[in-house]
Amino acid sequence: MASCRFCGATLHQTFVDLGMSPLCESYVSRDQLNQMEPFYPLHVYVCGECFLVQLEAYVSDEHIFSEYAYFSSYSDSWVEHCRVYTERMVERFDLGPRDHVVELASNDGYLLQHFVAKGIPVLGIEPAANIAEVAVRKGIPTLVKFFGENVARELVAEGMKADLLAGNNVLAQVSDLNDFVKGMKILLKPQGTITLEFPHLMRLMAENQFDTIYHEHFSYFSFTTVVKIFAAHGLTAFDVEELPTHGGSLRFYARHAEDASKPVGERVRELLAREASAGFKGLECYASFDEQVKETKRKLLAFLIKAKREGKSIAGYGAPGKGNTLLNFCGIRTDFLDYTVDRNPYKQGKFLPGTHIPIFAPDKIRETKPDYVLILPWNLKTEIKEQVSYIRDWGGRFVVPIPEVEVDS
Ligand SMILES: [Zn+2]
User: Which pTM value belongs to this model?
Assistant: First the structure.
């Protein structure tokens, strides 16, 4: 039996079992179509001791990140989110040319570019070499490494310490959580600030976002559990913000436990109290999620079966990781979805893992005029509906699968 990645307790309680699924970022090229494809369990547990919701790391971080296909800069709203973040951090923590901003999993430099533009020294740490290369070409110094205690010690030995240590959507993808947080403790200046953004488990459950579960996401965090993990490594949460990104994320602010210059704010106490009253410190609250997810699958299939019986054509929009969890769990292939489209040229011409649905450039929608467009990255539904609003010219309608199937009138 597996044990908890934070506290080591044996894991007994199922959170949700999504069956067997391929790695959701392993897009299939045409010459791989007839080859065998590895599938791994997507069986998520919740720890009965610390309530960390987690998936066993069936594949190593190295395998996942060696050629990760996700480029952060492909969503307009995300780019804007990062610009606003930069403005606010520079102002709040008075950052300038003598400070250092370090980002963990810095991707293609989508965030650090805003600090560079303000003349603030930065360092990105990014394990995927092909993505780090894009950042370096943009003039963003990037170290191709997996962050943890050892890398933090090497950087400190070279005289590097962080005034602002940022990590967006990386904490979930770290298999050795304790090593990663220990590294943050080492790399942070005595009065420095850590900010992390990650999807909020409370929102995942309330809004049925089970498709954000995939093999590359090892952990799913409540605020309560993250505060506990950081406290175990001498780091104190002093503020938290609830953000609309990725279906509802937290921006978590931490500092050294010894740093008295930043008092713990009211929002920390309020959110801890809210999670406690919602039952996040007891197993019952987690146990009903599995059935909720199965019912969502039945409703989505009922819609798709009805549409196909009426002779309608259905195309997808987007090829995000979450789409792959949804399609594989629900068993939706080209029998329902003719194709999907994505703005990311890296994915175009490839096929979705498992379901082998072909991925085209967005223009394909204009050419084929589908009756329905199923929006897979539902967190971007507003911007996608604007970008693809022309489907209304031929009476096309948008379908959003989560929290439950919803068709535009
Ligand atoms: Zn635990």
Answer: 0.90
